[in-house]
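pinned: reference chain
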Amino acid sequence: MLMDLNSYRLKRLIGDVSLRLLILILVIFFLGDLLGYFVGQLTHNAAMENQDALNKMFIHVPTYLQFAVVGFIIPIMEEIIFRGLLSKVLFGKYFKMGLVISSLLFMAGHSASTPQTIVIYGIMSAGLAITYYKTERIEYSMGVHILNNSISVLLSLFV
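pinned: its structure tokens
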């Protein structure tokens, strides 16, 4: 009986559209990062400006604080600014246009100027915008952004 109940809960959770969307967006982010890596290799641009700037800013900051700021605080602030304020508040009934413009500004804010960074941040900003648009809940785009940044910080610190 207990097994059936747990199985039902898992099926219900996996069947949830929001969860499937989040998993899809994370897979897209991973593929975007992978594609960005290969584009960087082809264009001989392996170092990203955004990562270099973060490395300089956090050179004397403890690892746990880097993780907290880049993994949690910055993604929450960026989602509030780019998806919340720009898309929903500023553009109101032109929400879709707001998502496109906020995605372009998100890319610009991350110094997306090389083929590698345009691919990476273009896919990321589109994925976050789609997440917010489809779910109509900023918490979901925040969660995806936090997860993406946290994984990136951990990889950059320990790999």
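why pinned: The radius of gyration is 17 Å. Helices lie at 2-15, 17-42, 49-57, 63-90, 95-109, 115-135, 138-158.
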